[in-house]
Design a protein that fits this description.
The protein is an alpha+beta fold and about 120 residues long. The chain is built from two helices and six strands; from the N terminus they run H-E-E-E-H-E-E-E. It has a single domain, classed as Cathepsin D, subunit A, domain 1 (Beta Barrel).
């Protein structure tokens, strides 16, 4: 009987650990709805943005930027992106930015966002 109780306790403990890992993972993926405004036309698009507390800048998919008609601005020197393990990312370096207004809960911020992904 004690072995059954011990196995039951171990099983429940593992279930709790798995649940905790799943909960922790969801806590690391925080998104917010924001509005992005094109500087040249003042047109807005509402998007769901991923917040990542370990990043050092803002990035946007170059494919998304093209589809939305954002005006790309070429930067002087490419920025090579490193992964969390310090290896270089397999994607092309950042070669363009987009100047944009970001609106969130009544706050407006004019900023530049780096383009990631294939940049034509």
């Amino acid at each position: 009987m004690e072995v059954g109780t011990s196995d039951s306790v171990r099983t429940k403990k593992k279930e709790v650990e798995v649940k905790k890992v799943k909960e922790d993972k969801s806590l690391r993926e925080v998104t917010v709805k924001i509005e992005l405004e094109r500087i040249d036309t003042q047109e807005e698009v509402t998007v769901e943005a991923l917040l990542d507390s370990s990043t050092i800048g803002l990035v946007m998919s170059s494919e998304f930027a093209r589809k939305q008609g954002f005006k790309l601005k070429k930067i002087n020197r490419p920025i090579y992106v490193r992964n969390v393990n310090s290896s270089f990312n397999k994607e092309d370096p950042i070669k363009h930015t987009v100047e944009i207004n970001i609106y969130y809960q009544g706050h407006r911020e004019k900023t530049e966002i780096d383009m990631i992904g294939e940049q034509k």
